[in-house]
Write a structure and sequence with these properties.
It is found in: Secreted. The chain has helices spanning 3-19, 51-65, 86-110, 123-132, 155-158, 172-177, 224-235, and strands at residues 35-40, 70-74, 115-121, 161-167, 193-196. It is of the alpha/beta class and 236 residues long. The protein has one domain: Rossmann fold (3-Layer(aba) Sandwich). Strand 4 (161-167), helix 6 (172-177) and strand 5 form a beta-alpha-beta unit.
Amino acid sequence: MTTRVFVILSAVLTMVAAGVTVQLPVASAQGCPDVSVVFARGTAEPGGPVGVTGTSFVAALQTQLGARSLRVYGVNYPASADFQNRLAFAQTVVDGIDDTQREVTSTAAACPRTRIVLGGYSQGAAVVGYAAGDSISVKQQYRRFAADIPGPLARDVRGHIAAMVLFAPPSHRFLDDAGAPDLTVDPALVPRTVRYCIPGDTVCDGAPLQQPNGLHVLYAVDGDTLSAARFAVSRI
């Protein structure tokens, strides 16, 4: 990220810290919750296991769920910023997909009545989108690595996903320029999925591949996390 983006992100962190106080429950909390959030933070994003955007979303969701219990799991992956090494960067995404699928599958098996909400910001949005999608189509130049790409979630497991919220998911142009597979939502999940892209955010608005601008770090404070929480609650 550019220096300007880091300056803006520092301001966002200050605003979130001032306006949001949320205790993120541990994924192994006792019993089965009514709702389980599985959230993947963005590239090198600060703010704990779910990042600044995820923390803002969880706070809004917790408020709107009322008395219903909530568990939060931050996807365990590097969220690497090593854009110069495409194979190493791809590995961090694969790690995120694997961890997302493990958590969703284990939750569905252990807590079949728990409603799962998937979420992600930026690179994390790609991670959860790939994790919940159909088979990932690898570009020709990377076909030799196709066996390393995780397969899709079992159809019955996907049925436990109540909602998926994607903040600043990389656009088709952005992913294509980077040599990455397109991000296609499983048709069965389309009615349960919402995407947010601030106009002018070059990561998600269809602009050519480039460094993110200052708009890319505003999702925690521009009202989108509140809207996403309302959407998720409506699908639970």
